[in-house]
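Q: You know discrete backbone vocabularies at least as well as I do. I have my own habits and do not want them to colour yours. No explanation is needed for now; the record alone will do.
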Amino acid sequence: MLDQLTYEDFKDEIGKTFVLEGVGGRVEMELIAARLSPYPGLPARRRAFAILFVTAPTPILDNQMYNIRHPRKGLMEGVFITPVIPAISDIEKLNGKRVYEAVFN
């Protein structure tokens, strides 16, 4: 399923809650951005994109595979999530929340 996901599957879901499921339990995350890669990909493949989430400061999530529940697509299994450092201009707006990213190539 992951190889069939595209930027279009996420662009209209910004502001919606996704549920991340991992070894430590379930965490609700808000989708704050979906971005297309500025670099062209291989002709037969989808264009690479990334999605960004924010969530509460705890628990701190490690770099690893998680399952994510998408509001329309259902369960997405084995999505690699990594914490990212927000832009300096966004730090105050985040009010202590953590930012995580998933990249789809």
